[in-house]
Amino acid sequence: xxxxxxxxxxxxxxxxxxxxxxxxxxxxxxxxxxxxxxxxxxxxxxxxxxxxxxxxxxxxxxxxxxxxxxxxxxxxxxxxxxxxxxxxxxxxxxxxxxxxxxxxxxxxxxxxxxxxxxxxxxxxxxxxxxxxxxxxxxxxxxxxxxxxx
Length: 149
Fold this sequence. Notes:
Elements: H1 10-33, H2 42-54, H3 59-66, H4 70-82, E1 86-90, E2 98-102, H5 104-126, H6 130-147
Antiparallel strand pairs: 1-2
Helix pairs in contact: 2-4, 3-4
């Protein structure tokens, strides 16, 4: 029976949800374990990643992306600035605001972090059959769509 003719049941959907949740959690946990120890919290690294993807941003915009309160983001940014990982520049149109961007050291830290985790994942993917890798390639955009809020 083709999938188009098969309506998923609540049980099969719940089972799939459970399988995916466990698999994604294990992969996430393993990727975190592959991070180089740079003395930063996951929140600090995630903040650097947000700035890298969307910056330069105001602290409020970063807080929105990271789903934290502005006072918490102020503390996170202070720690990153103290370590020389970010730089603040005046906002071009709002003198009360400033923009946060990555310092060269922050960009380098992120690049090394990503490189190490991607190298581990590439080694694991190389152990799969070509068919398994193609299946994962097809599924990746679907998982990405599920995670968008």
